[in-house]
Amino acid sequence: MKKNLAVFIGLFTIEILLNACGKKEKQTGHSVLDESAIAVQVAPVKYVEYSLPVISSGLISTETESKLSFKVSGIISRIFVKEGESVSKGQLLASLDLTEVNAQVSQAKNNLIKAQRDLDRGKRLLKDSAATQEQIQNLQTAYQVANDSYRIAVFNQQFSTIHANQSGKIIRKFLNAGELVMAGSPVLILNSAAQNEWIVKIGLPDVDWVRVKKEDRATITTDAYPNEPIEGELNVINEGADPVTGLYQAEVKIIPGNKKLASGLFAKVEIMPSAKKKLMTIPVEAVVEGQGQHAFVFVVNDDQTSVRKVPIVIAHLENKLAYISQGLDSIHEVVAGGSGFLTENSSVKINQH
């Protein structure tokens, strides 16, 4: 009897020890699970009406910038102005050596006088029946040709000098006295900016051209005023693309205020289209493994302890927010804090703070 009791007590003791060990293992296993779980924070997916900016760049100029040139080729006799000099409308700016031009005018005038004289003699002969009507018609044609040649020579003589077509400032001089210039080649650039009519000429790809319209608000930044953006608005949008670049030319009118601008300054332009699009926003730190517009975010599963990686398409990044166009339609929260430490096999615990 004593022997049986001893065996029973021994078995009971072993069972108690085994139960204790099992509980300890469970507790230890639970503790390991807690320690391996990565603490994360989640952020809500918000829906906004947003207008993606159109970004381009160009050079600042004016609406009234003129490239002045001679009508005919020749040797430049004098240039009367310097770069940066202010001029008045009608002021003489440059002239060619007129020796050849004046000779052409004189030659054309003499041909005209001779043609007139021949025509008058022919008319007298016609009265005396010494000339035919056909001869008179030929003389009249010769007179008309000579008269047109004289008018052309006089016209070219007028445009063998350059006068200011408006008041403004000479911003560029391409040639000097004594140089040979071809007809139509720019000699001077006159910039009339008295009324601050500054513009930026930019090129837009077709995907941006369809999103903008006249009077859309714009922001202009330059190296001259790096931390002082200048306001503007879209003023001109061309309907045809440039055959070389494939871009649609546009002009942004600048509202400079009291800022001093100059032609040729490089400017970055950001246009805010008035047409808005529905997008989703998440904190930028929630985005992982991004390449171009394509990236991923982590989303906590329904069990609240595991995550999955979801592909997204980024439309824009601004002010620590990522604007998402695709990928989050049925998702309400994404992992923000701690997303950089996660893999698809990670265990997580949500930190509410």
Structure description:
This protein is of the alpha+beta class and 353 residues long. Among the domains are: 38-50 and 277-350, conserved putative lor/sdh protein from methanococcus maripaludis s2 fold, CATH 2.40.420; 55-63 and 194-272, Efflux pump adaptor protein, beta barrel domain (Elongation Factor Tu (Ef-tu), domain 3), CATH 2.40.30; 99-159, Helix hairpin bin (Helix Hairpins). The chain is 27% helix and 39% strand. It is built from four helices and 23 strands. The strands form five sheets. A six-stranded antiparallel beta sheet has the order 2-17-21-20-19-18, with no helix packed on it. Strand 20 and strand 21 form a beta hairpin. The longest helix has 35 residues, at 2-36. It is elongated, with a radius of gyration of 42 Å. The two termini are 65 Å apart.
